[in-house]
Amino acid sequence: MSRMTSSARPLLNRRLAEFGTTIFAEMSALALSTGAINLGQGFPDTDGPEEVREAAVRALRDGLGNQYPPGPGVPELRTAIAAHQQRRYGLSCDPDRDVLVTAGATEAIAASLLALVEPGDEVIALEPYYDSYAACIAMAGGRRVPVTLRPHEDSFRLDLDELRDAVTDHTRLLLINTPHNPTGTVLTRAELAAIAELAVERDLLVVTDEVYEHLVFDEAEHVPLATFPGMRERTVTIGSAGKTFSFTGWKVGWVTAAPELVTAVRSAKQYLTYVASGPFQYAVAEALALPESYFTAFRDDMLAKRNLLAAGLEEAGFRVFRPSGTYFVTTDIRPLGERDGFAFCRALPERAGVVAIPNAVFYDHREEGAPFVRFAFCKRTGVLEEAVRRLKGVAGA
User: Fold this and answer.
1) Distances in Å between the alpha carbon of 98 and those of 71, 93, 108, 281?
2) Pick from 147, 172, 319, 350: CA 20 to 30 A from residue 265's CA?
3) How far is CA 186 from the centre of its chain?
4) Among residues 133, 208, 160, 144, which one has the least CA distance to residue 361?
5) Does pTM surpass 0.90?
6) CB neighbours of residue 83 within 10 Å
7) What is the pLDDT of residues 89-139, one digit of tens each?
């Protein structure tokens, strides 16, 4: 009888040993088994614009992208991405040298970190952070250094002094996410200017995850870090179609950066997927050219859903941090007499028929995130109304 391995060494690479099944898989399975409303994972429950979906069908029928597309992405999409950056932010991009299409933002993050980080390099990330950040830093052999966003009045704020103090001679890269998942914080122009000054002063590379750039609310504004002095040549900006156009399964993301950075990221990306999402790239090119009325209506719809869910959570007894961006609401469960987000979220489907995500999974310092729970509001209005109705009884359950 043969053995699977000839040694006692674990099968899983030790760099990934701390990462098990993602919390999203666990909670989505719980939603399925209990019939609960899934406000955990961040995907819409309706498709995006019909004309964009039809553009994908047309591309399939016309034989566009059915075979390997060009490694950097189809020219139509790269041109559309460059036009988007210029039109919205005044960022001039050469479609042939400054743009790289990826299999979603997740691959863009992975390729950027694998390309730019060597073993022993320190990577500063804003905590709580999207869970793939930690895994990608580990796969690159880097050491993650979290800087924690902490509650301040009705939002989570960055302590710029703490960020500055976290930089050492071993720091290679800042990994910035704004609008920020899961807290909904949108970094201000002043905060971004301070980050830019620090990066220039200490000669740091910066990767910015800006996938929620079109979902900012109230008085917040999204300002790409690459627009600040000295940042264009050191910043990798990551965008995505999934969040803006509600086609998350298409997995179309992109990188924009100076040619030297794009070349480095492409060197890693070509050994990951090589290419992906051929026909969908043509459809996303058309989506990026939609009139401003689409983006305004999309934002207004999400704002109304934010307000609906936030008000319902407040009425149910949660402390609510109304997000300035993204489509997630972070809550504090301590007013409900709870302190353990993991236990609360695992019990919530039975207690109230709703699934949420414990924010502690996004922290190195688990105790910092223990009482916080995230809900997604990118669902149909009727689904959110039913979730709010169910949650009203959670305090006494």
Assistant:
1) 14, 6, 14, 17
2) 147
3) 13
4) 133
5) yes
6) 15
7) 999 999 999 999 999 999 999 999 999 999 999 999 999 998 899 999 999
